[in-house]
Amino acid sequence: MLYFWKRSKMKKNEPTGKIGGTHSESHEKDLDLPLFGLYTISKATNNFSIDNKLGEGGFGPVYKGMLEEGQDIAVKRLSKTSMQGLDEFKNEVICIAKLQHRNLVRLLGCCIQGEEIMLIYEYMPNKSLDLFLFDQTKSKLLDWEKRFQIVNGIARGIMYLHQDSRLRIIHRDLKASNILLDTDMNPKISDFGIARSFRGNETEDKTNRVVGTYGYMSPEYAVHGRYSIKSDVFSFGVLLLEIVSGKRNSGFSKGNQHLDLLGHAWTLYKDGKSLELDDAYICDSANLSEVQRLIHVGLLCVQKRPDDRPCMTTVVALLSNEGKLPKANQPGFFTEGDAFVDEGTTSRNEASSTNEITITQLEAR
Questions:
Q1: Rounded Cα distance, 41 and 108, in Å
Q2: Domain boundary among 122, 149, 181
């Protein structure tokens, strides 16, 4: 339990301070994070005006705000009925309080007063990638150069989490709605509420409580509850293929094939027709050799066996290298109607498409 959970009684205009604490599961110590007073955040969001509301997820509503010095912020306000959100709040602080990377959204601080619990982030003016990628009008703004830039930025962010951060962090919910875009359309990975961290040489774990989003989860995680850095690699591969094609993996259909996006991409790859996967909106701006290479890298990332998938360090190198790529094996894809979505599934992000379903609990077998 974090030390600052006892810091609930503060004066109305209490200035920003520091908080620290420990967590038995991650053995983290001395977590320092700026603390904002409720009055400051309430004023910044115009008393949490509906006009300032950006969306709502499993944690609770998210508001845009502006601090007195003119800095734009995004405020995640924990719903009073969300126990899941309370766990995610603690996990998010533990995982990213000290992480610094240009492709990770920055946590500026938190506000804890009475029953109010909030996280304060840097504000991303272009919101999330899915709002552009899967919208027929907005997707036209994503030319090939921007998409290539977004893919590389996401890859570097994940590589940092897996390899270069103070802990090895597995995100477990990489998807288009969790990629935020700044003013220049640079991608920033967000939402670490269900992330897990490892120390030393640890690289994988198993859980009986599977959490994540249908369409992005690796088969070994969805079926057996086993997650590792290769689970994130699988999710990145799905995301990469979505960025190239402009189509969602979940809910995808093509004629009478009854395949998801991964199955369709695999079929085209085997037939030497990978370029048919690309989004019609990028035809004029695309570098065809780069398009083909990215599709190939995406298929390498979604291979069925975790050991066959490259690590993110290799992925970053493959994205920028013009050398020969290894042959891709069959992906671990699911056709529509698989048994991984049941009556117990719920959406974690109401602001995103209803096609995006998150599994909140599934007993491993």
A1: 12
A2: 122
The C-alpha atoms of residue 363 and residue 237 are separated, in whole angstroms, by 25
Do 96 and 16 belong to one domain?
yes
pLDDT digits (tens, 9 = 90+) for 289-317: 999 999 999 999 999 999 999 999 999 99
Verify that 175 and 158 share a domain, yes or no: yes
Q: Is the CB of residue 44 less than 8 Å from the CB of residue 73? A: yes
Using the Cα atoms of residue 295, residue 299, residue 302 and residue 308 in order, give the sign of their dihedral: negative
β-partners of residue 34 are 18
Its pTM stands at 0.84
CB contact at 8 A, 162 and 229:
yes
- Catalytic residue chosen out of the listed positions 32, 51, 87, 173: 173
Helix or strand (DSSP H, E) at 169: strand 168-170
Q: Is 308 exposed, middle or buried (0-12, 13-18, 19+ CB in 10 A)?
A: middle
User: What's the CA gap between 110 and 12, in Å, rounded?
Assistant: 15
| CATH code, 205 | 1.10.510.10
pLDDT digits (tens, 9 = 90+) for 143-201: 999 999 999 999 999 999 999 887 889 999 999 999 999 999 999 999 998 898 887 66
First to last CA, the chain: 31
Active site residue 173: yes
For the chain, the C-alpha Rg in angstroms (whole number) is 20
Spatial contact of 86 and 78, defined as CB atoms under 8 Å apart: yes
